[in-house]
Amino acid sequence: MCMDYRDLNRASPKDNFPLPHIDTLVDNTAKHSLFLLMDGFSGYNQINMALKDMEKTTFVTMWGTFCYKVMPFELKNAGETYQRAMVMLLHDMMHKEIEVYVNDMIAKSKGEREHVGNLRKLFERLRKFQLKLNPAKCTFGTTSE
Q1: pLDDT digits (tens, 9 = 90+) for 27-77
Q2: Which residues form the signal peptide (predicted)?
């Protein structure tokens, strides 16, 4: 379902939560040799809408009136909201074992043993918060060479 949220987006204040700079993410991976590139599956749709904001996403179909219970992609601050959630859930791993840009993540390691430990820690965290990855868009065992 694709909705036109232009009016809602115009009325919404801008969320100034900072998105990471790509050059910083690249620099933070420079001394690592093993990588796992990951993509959050239906990323934005994994974030629940606040109850007070659900009605703002209301749409009408021939089967009735509905609203989103999860954040639709088209909302103005979707990227910032998702980044904030990732920072909250993964803050202690960011810039150490992983780098995160909205729904894209890179697990980074200097060696195989460290890589396995980092992945175990990351997957446990993702499982704890019921975050899903899109396996079709994940690349395992990438090297810097």
Answers
A1: 999 999 999 999 987 777 888 999 999 999 999 999 999 999 998 888 999
A2: none
Q: Which residues contact 69 (CB under 8 A, 6 or more apart)?
A: 48, 49, 54
**What's the Cα-to-Cα distance from 104 to each of 7, 55, 134, rounded to whole Å?**
28, 29, 10
- Coil/strand/helix, residue 31: coil
Q: For the CA atoms of 39, 44, 46, 49, what is the dihedral angle to 10 degrees?
A: 170
Stated as kind and residue range, the H or E segment containing 81 is: helix 78-90
0.70 cut: is pTM over it? yes
Contacts of 21 (CB under 8 A, 6+ apart): none
